[in-house]
Amino acid sequence: MPNKNQSATRYSAVSEINTDNVKNLKVAWSFSTGVLRGHEGEPLVVSNTMYVHTPFPNIVYALDLTKEGAPVKWKYVPKQDSAVIPIACCDTVNRGVTYANGKIFFNQLDTNTVALDAETGKELWKVKQGDYKQGQTVTSAPMVIKDKVISGISGGEFGVRGFVTANDINTGKQIWRMYSTGPEAEVGFPGSVETWKGEEWKRGGGTTWGWYSYDPELDLFYYGTGNPGSWNPDQRPGDNKYSMTIFARNPDTGKAAWAYQKTPHDAWDYDGINENVLVDVNVNGQMRKVLVNFDRNGFSYMLDRKTGELLQANPFVHVNWAKGVDLKTGKPIEDPEKRTSATKNTKDICPSAMGGKNQQPVSYSPRTGFFYVPTNNLCMDYEGVEVKYQAGQPYVGAIVVSKPGPGGNRGEFIAWDPSAGKKVWGIKEPLSAWGGALATAGDVVFYGTMEGWLKAVHAKTGDVLWKFKTPSGIIGNPMTYVGPDGKQYIAVLSGVGGWSGIGVAADMSLEDPTAGLGAIGAFKDLANFSNQGGVLTVFSLP
Amino acid sequence: MKQVGRVLSDAPTIVVLLCLVCPGIAFGQTKHPLRVCSDPENMPFSNQKLEGFENRIASLIAKELGTTVSYIWWGQRRGFIRNTMNATLQEGRCDVVIGVPQGYDLVSTTPPYYRSTYVFVYPKGKGLTLKSLDDPVLKKLKIGVHLLGDDYTNPPPVHELSKRGVVDNVVGFSTFYSDENPPSTIIDAVASGTINLAIVWGPIAGYYAARQRVPLELVPVPSAQGDLPFAFNISIGIKKGDEALKARVETVRRQRSAEITAILKEYGVPLMDEGRTRAK
Fold first, then answer.
1. Alpha-carbon gap, residue A30 to A470, rounded angstroms
2. Structure pTM?
3. Which of A79, A135, A440, B227 has the highest Cβ tally under 10 A?
4. Which pLDDT band holds residue A512 (cuts at 50, 70, 90)?
5. Do B124 and B109 share a structural domain?
């Protein structure tokens, strides 16, 4: 599965490549995906076959690792209406495939969940989860838990009411669907409807486009929900539950054991979908089964994953919208000066809507006990309103301009000590660190940059031990596998795009700093470093 | 950073200069079709059957330029200009968008060819008369509005309603159109009584109100002191940097303004004079 294991630690116990020999790493082979837009996620290796996915049109390739140069074993090209492209908010990305019981599962942009025969690429079943004509799309990778495949939905900007769905892995039949907002019977947890005015929970947002994790012992799976939908904050008074929430659900019934809302009544688009990593750590001298979440809003949350009790919430990047989080109530202690409004200019809010961390997943090494976190150092201005135009009508929208945070670097790759709740070391990056992290038992940590560098760093010290410039910017996640020849390989997709890279991916006008929801303002010079193009590069020791 | 910005902002000037010395490829002289980006399903503006008033205006302009229209269809969503006029691939690009707000800065805009306004839409002769957003009755009525996005992206009267505390009784209507949700839905809801009134952009209101069995009243929403504007000038959008095409389109707009206005009236678009707040 993507993220290596159900705990989503992205840690590999393979140690052939270590801190001494990583400097000798060489390209073993490479492969063009044939698709230009942003490549998020990572390839998957299952018994000598590598499965590589692409952004829209969501091609899946099976590459035969037993043969020299890894030739294509099969290729699956879905038929999708290109009318779905304008619906995707932030580039037509996809975050990958997952495997179970001889089948490959993935989600298409047009909301179809598909099961393929892993050996032949034959389509076994296909289930439509939503209607892109109503603003619904899917960009996330599904997760298989027991005999069910769990999928989410995107489209919070269009008022899509978020949900998660469990389908039978063998037939595709829907087992259950639970919503983020609404009555208890539809959410699987009480307390949502009363935090909305009237029936606005019906357009409540809280979409579910991030990564999922699962604790088999507690039999609970975890995921985050996104920003509240459609209305501006003045029009949706209340906490807007359960947007911006970490849910713990039972995979058989869909019912929630607990729910914790990180950003009540969001006014910043701190879309709370980031992954929840399940680890056992020492908290005040006691080993606890916890969940750690590095949220878009800039706080790193640690919760007891059985009860949902909040144990820690510390900023991992520069944060000024809130002074901290009250551990008793779980609520942020907001700075009222930084709450955005339609009628005033709010300057220098940190982090920006792009988040202290976006979709790029973190990694955790049990050897060092550190999290490795690709972060953004971005702030933003909300400047009143300007005239825009959509569906034939002029309307007004806030001008959101993202800009580099303190220090001027737009990203930093950090090591984070969860017990102490603070940063251990950091590597400043000129652009945001928009790709995921990979930690290995060789004490080497890998991550990619938007310029296209794949870097190998020392897990303990943060010293950069090796780097290689891939053909395009990296917003995907490095992964490692042991090949049929017994050697350790490192693989990564490059192909710049996504929200931060949308200026390059969609060739937007660079003269408009507010285009791409403020992404252009922060990444105006990206084209100087990187161009479009999906390429998989695979490395090994000579 | 500063230097990069300067070089970029100089780019359009260079393009213009180059084209002055190569008139043979300038628009019109080789009879290229007029490439228009348009929404495939957004009446009364446009659709793929070419039934909208923007389709009619596009044909009029093309005819005057001695050419025909070739359409690039794309939903008018966020990213419309990015994916059409500024598309990566040359084949996907267009030169003209028939209707954009004047000064819309992703494109270069001609002087306006009409001015319309958001309007109140409610049944005629049923005892309701509305003149302003400050009318206390607005807190008691079920009001339909279009949903256009999330944080702070709403039709301007909707912002002003929420400023006045009119929130609970406002109902959102999607602008994702399909057979199940045609663009007329919000006006149909007024006619059927599902909602008491709607606040809708003039061209949409005018066209669909005229097609109801129940007579409907359309009243411009006046903008009070401190409010956002509710009336907007609408211009033709031209690809930035194409000054030659802009000049030719502008000439047609000026010379054929009577015909353009006649088309707008045929579609029931509430028209206002420049700077006026009352519809004619």
1. 10
2. 0.90
3. A440
4. low
5. no
